[in-house]
Amino acid sequence: MKLRNRTALITGASRGIGRAIALAFAAEGADLAITARSHQDLESLRSLASEMGVQCVAVVADLSKPDSIETIFSHVNQAFDHMDILVNNAGLGSSIDPKPLIHFDDQIWDLTFQINVKVPYLLCKQFVPDMIKRKYGRIINIASLAGKAGLLHGSAYSASKHALLGITRSLAAEIVKDGITVNAICPGAVRTVTNEPRMAYDAQRLGKSVAEYEATMTPLGRRLESEEIAPMAMYLASDEASVVTGQAFNVDGGVFMW
Description:
Blueprint: E1 7-10, H1 16-27, E2 31-36, H2 39-51, E3 56-60, H3 68-79, E4 85-88, H4 106-134, E5 137-142, H5 155-175, E6 180-187, H6 196-206, H7 210-214, H8 230-237, E7 248-251
Parallel strand pairs: 1-2, 1-4, 2-3, 4-5, 5-6, 6-7
């Protein structure tokens, strides 16, 4: 098992990409700390991971609250003596209130940057010092294709994911000699609960059905599934990726080919 004797913290783990990554890590032997707002969904995931023979600690935390980082850090430290892998997956998507920039809600702009940028920054500040002491660590930030290009009626989301890639590359340069890698995954459109409202919005805007719009989104003719993102996270978390750092990998069904 590639992650046996490793520990991993995954934010936004209760569903979608985070859940898929958690299950993939558990299948490879990693002990887990999982966080999200939903106790019920987290408990379901914790039960599945435990059945796979790994230790799994669920921490209910609302990342929009100032005390959430300390809550996560405290619970993780009680359960584990160190953390090998940090997956910053929790994020606020563009589906919350898609609008042109000039009509955008300032509070939603601030909340998007809080969840998508400040939380990964603060979690890195909490966990990286111990990784430096131990000379080992893996940080994986879940960004987006929108972090490499603009997103119509999604400026807050796109800007926040651009910022997350900036953090990824800057931190990677700072700790490359400490045995720690820092990388990002940039998914294309993934079939998740949070993506559904955005799909409906864009389909209506273009005068298409959701099915018609989805068929045009990638050269594959479909959205991706969460389980198709997890293998890249698995690779970046493994010892096989020890020389891969500061990168932002597109997993998008061929949308961006460069």
